[in-house]
Amino acid sequence: MLESLDSLHFYVGITDDLRARLTKHNAGEVPHTSKYGPWRLKTYVAFSIEKQAVAFEKYLKSASGRAFAKKRL
């Protein structure tokens, strides 16, 4: 989970190279996040099974997942 430096915007996604992905977001190479940067890492969760990572990402993008993340992450 990434947070914009103004703390008004958040981004949830999955990657197998966290450092490279954060660099891309901060370089403006990701259209969805380019207008809200710079970004910092707020939280990350590592999964050994990709299917679980995808399911958790989907959950965090749901209304109940956003509420969970706001309260717990």
The percent range for strand residues is 5-15%
Calculate Rg over CA atoms.
12 Å
What is the H-and-E element order?
Answer: EEHEHH
Arithmetic mean pLDDT: 96
Poorly predicted regions: none
> Terminal Cα separation, in Å?
9 Å
Compute the number of helices: 3
Biggest sheet details: 3 strands, antiparallel
**Extended strand count:** 3
Q: Which range best describes the helical content: under 10%, 10-25%, 25-40%, 40-55%, 55-70% or over 70%? A: 40-55%
In what order do the strands lie side by side in the largest sheet? 2-1-3
Overall geometric form: globular
Secondary structure category: alpha+beta
Tell me the layout of helices and strands.
Layout: E1 2-4, E2 10-11, H1 18-26, E3 39-41, H2 50-60, H3 63-72
Antiparallel strand pairs: 1-2, 1-3
